[in-house]
């Protein structure tokens, strides 16, 4: 080898070692290439569509033997709609062949969709948008080459050839699936396959949102919304165990929100930040990390306390928000904010004890005593009822009357998690299982592979599936519904805050509850309801805990438990 080669190699080594920042930041994400599973629709002159369903290798070649051809005659446009089988986060890789006349790029239009109908819509039609992610765009494709484009959440892709009197040769149209390549350490399997699929779908929904940061949605709301993180982090702890995306996201929320600001402009979201840190500590017991939060935590506690009136009534400013379905009910919001103030300050006092911060502990505990002297009216709001039950502002049995009315009617994908938790606190585990089957299960019945930003049982009558073009006379469950900021196709069909049943099933059916920091103690109290058996795993810092519960002929439950020796298991 020449001296020139060695000289260049030495320079590269020195450059990387002495100037690591210049090399760039390494991504924690993996890219996987996925072929479509079917051609859902096509129009115009198109041949050999089965070629696009083959795995592919990402490489153009000179044989041009296996090619899908789109041909425009005059102004007629040839178009194709591809289904990748499940919701994905990422983009698209298009590999082209040889057409004539050669070397002339072809102009195409690409539309991503979380539903088949979204991929067919025009921008502005029924809320179709390029907000957060450009999902409808035009580009040029090279002759005998490759293009990698796009960044969105999608399952369906429509491609239109735009050039008149032209051919487009497609060798491959593969999705570029971008995700964290991490194992599913937690698991759930029971005698009800519907519940099994719901658990897995919730886990997958959050997994897709575990990008550089923990997002709420992969098409829209590709942001760190702190309140939305709470159900997501519960799922992360249940399924994946420790992952750096959680502290990274919590720190981002803190760093971009100097006090006296509220995270995301919402007082409850700053409260959720406190609760999230306690949950994270209970699972992972990282005291050094918790100590990093102490200055912000103590100041935030004082800020929350300053918004409590002398009569113990909350007076939170900023955006007074629980979730979207309750956003037009001021009484419910007030009751929820009263409960959230209690929850967050009670939690802050526990954190202060861990941090040996007596001043913050005392400030929080005194405020909680005042807050509990004022009792708001929950009315018929399931959001308010859930939060008041969870914070002992109202008896769980009283809240359960509100929560059980109409079954899953008036549930929401975000606060549904807390509604389920309150039903469990009241001992209504069977009712909660029925809601999970009927509410989250209904999304699966409509073709969902991830859970949605919102869902309403009133949308169900005469609704078409999301994995088909809407038949004549049917309602478009995506384009025709939605509300507030998620009207029509702007509605996100992969929203991490909707994953609540995943952690709920592990906590209440498998009965696994962390009762000492770092999972050093876990209490197991199974509730099978109408299930014959349930089994699964749960990640701890010391390894995976395994449980299996089987209902005996006399109704008693036989439990088999195998956990790491460092974890104390308490059976109830």
Automatic annotation (TrEMBL):
Coiled-coil spans are: none
Task: Tell me the ranges covered by the Alpha-L-rhamnosidase six-hairpin glycosidase domain, including all copies.
Answer: 185-509
Query: Which InterPro entries is this protein grouped with?
Result: 6-hairpin_glycosidase_sf, 6hp_glycosidase-like_sf, Bac_rhamnosid6H, Bac_rhamnosid_C
Return the protein name.
Alpha-L-rhamnosidase
Mind telling me which Pfam families this protein's record contains?
Bac_rhamnosid6H (PF17389), Bac_rhamnosid_C (PF17390)
- In what residue span(s) does the Alpha-L-rhamnosidase C-terminal domain sit? 511-568
> PANTHER family in the record, alphabetically?
ALPHA-L-RHAMNOSIDASE SIX-HAIRPIN GLYCOSIDASE DOMAIN-CONTAINING PROTEIN, C, PUTATIVE (AFU_ORTHOLOGUE AFUA_3G02880)-RELATED
């Amino acid at each position: 080898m020449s001296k020139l080669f060695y000289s260049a190699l030495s320079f590269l080594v020195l450059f990387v070692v002495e100037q690591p920042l210049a090399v760039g930041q390494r991504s924690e994400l993996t890219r996987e290439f996925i072929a479509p599973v079917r051609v859902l629709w096509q129009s115009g002159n198109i041949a050999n569509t089965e070629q696009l369903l083959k795995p592919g290798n990402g490489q153009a070649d000179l044989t041009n033997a296996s090619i899908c051809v789109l041909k425009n005659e005059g102004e007629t446009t040839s178009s194709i709609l591809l289904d990748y089988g499940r919701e994905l986060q990422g983009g698209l890789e298009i590999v082209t062949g040889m057409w004539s006349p050669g070397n002339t790029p072809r102009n195409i239009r690409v539309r991503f969709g979380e539903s088949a109908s979204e991929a067919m819509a025009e921008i502005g039609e029924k809320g179709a948008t390029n907000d957060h992610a450009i999902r409808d765009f035009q580009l040029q494709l090279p002759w005998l080459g490759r293009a990698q484009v796009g960044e969105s959440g999608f399952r369906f892709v429509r491609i239109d050839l735009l050039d008149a009197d032209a051919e487009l040769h497609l060798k491959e149209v593969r999705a570029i699936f971008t995700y964290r390549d991490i194992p599913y350490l937690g698991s759930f399997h029971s005698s009800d396959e519907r519940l099994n699929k719901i658990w897995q779908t919730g886990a997958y929904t959050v997994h897709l949102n575990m990008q550089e940061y923990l997002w709420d949605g992969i098409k829209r709301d590709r942001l760190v919304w702190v309140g939305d993180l709470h159900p997501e982090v519960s799922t992360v702890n249940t399924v994946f165990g420790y992952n750096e995306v959680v502290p990274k996201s919590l720190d981002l929320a803190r760093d971009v929100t100097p006090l006296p600001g509220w995270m995301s402009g919402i007082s409850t979201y700053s409260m959720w930040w406190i609760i999230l840190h306690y949950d994270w500590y209970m699972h992972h017991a990282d005291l050094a990390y918790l100590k990093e939060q102490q200055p912000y935590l103590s100041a935030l506690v004082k800020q929350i306390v300053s918004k409590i009136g002398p009569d113990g009534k909350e007076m939170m400013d900023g955006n007074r928000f629980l979730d979207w379905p309750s956003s037009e009910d001021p009484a419910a919001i007030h009751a929820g904010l009263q409960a959230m103030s209690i929850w967050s300050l009670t939690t802050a006092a526990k954190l202060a004890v861990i941090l040996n911060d007596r001043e913050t502990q005392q400030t929080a505990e005194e405020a909680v005593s005042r807050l509990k002297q004022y009792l708001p009216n929950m009315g018929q709001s399931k959001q308010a009822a859930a939060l008041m039950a969870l914070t002992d502002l109202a008896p769980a049995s009283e809240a359960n009357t509100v929560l059980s009315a109409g079954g899953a009617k008036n549930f929401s994908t975000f606060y549904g998690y807390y509604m389920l938790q309150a039903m469990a606190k009241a001992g209504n585990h069977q009712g909660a299982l029925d809601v999970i089957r009927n509410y989250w299960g209904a999304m699966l019945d409509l073709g969902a592979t991830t859970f949605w930003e919102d869902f309403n049982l009133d949308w169900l009558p005469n609704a078409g599936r999301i994995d088909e073009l809407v038949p004549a006379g049917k309602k478009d469950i995506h384009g025709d519904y939605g509300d507030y900021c998620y009207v029509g196709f702007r509605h996100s069909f992969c929203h991490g805050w909707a994953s609540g049943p995943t952690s709920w099933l592990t906590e209440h059916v498998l009965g696994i509850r962390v009762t000492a920091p770092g999972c050093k103690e876990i209490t197991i109290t199974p509730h099978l309801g109408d299930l014959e058996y349930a089994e699964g795993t749960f990640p701890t810092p010391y390894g995976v805990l395994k449980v299996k519960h089987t209902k005996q002929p006399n109704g008693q439950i036989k439990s088999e438990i195998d956990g790491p020796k460092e974890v104390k298991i308490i059976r109830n």
